[in-house]
Amino acid sequence: MPTTPTPAELEAFLDESLPPERMAAIEDALRGGDATLSARLAEVRGRRDAGLHSLGAVWRSRRLTCPTREQLGSYLLGVLDPGHADYVRFHLEVIACRPCRASLADLQSRQSTASDDAQQAEGRRQRYFQSSVGRLRDAEDA
Fold first, then answer.
1. 102 and 72 in contact (C-beta within 8 Å)?
2. pLDDT single digits (tens) 44-57
3. How many Cβ atoms from other residues are within 10 Å of residue 126's Cβ?
4. pLDDT by residue (tens digit) across 66-94?
5. Has this prediction a pTM greater than 0.90?
6. In the chain, at which end, N or C, are there fewer CB atoms within 10 A of the end residue's CB?
7. Phi/psi zone of residue 16: left (φ > 0), alpha (ψ -120 to 50 degrees), beta?
């Protein structure tokens, strides 16, 4: 591993909130038998289990700066006020919050699926209408 992880990085590793490359590097070192790193990680985990949390740790674990799923949906739809939209964009792109990015990706896939479903329903309506046009005329003539 290029650099020794900081205590904050070990906390983030336990929260799975590091960039994927850094997560993989730490995991590789642990799997490779780095006893010092394992001991440091156990110490961090022990502090957590003992309830010795800093304000920053509580802030991160409760994700107090993360937008709600509803706010992410509003951001996706482009209906947030500009200041709030800038914050959400910063949170997603600069902070690169993995849980929020995953939630946004889920919302995008659901939006895409809903759009596809709506297009299919409209196509069915059009086909039903087209198939019944001649029958309606025949009924009017009779």
1. no
2. 888 877 766 667 66
3. 10
4. 999 999 999 999 999 999 999 999 999 98
5. no
6. C
7. left
What's the CA gap between 131 and 123, in Å, rounded? 12
| CB-based burial, 77-97: b 16+ in 10 Å, e otherwise | eeebeeeeeeebeebbeeeeb
The tally of CA atoms less than 13 A away on the side-chain side of residue 40 is 17
Among the listed residues 7, 12, 17, the one whose alpha carbon sits nearest the alpha carbon of residue 44: 7
Backbone dihedral angles phi then psi of residue 111, each to the nearest 5 degrees: -65, -40
In angstroms, the Cα distances linking 98 to 15, 63, 77, 109 are: 10, 11, 20, 16
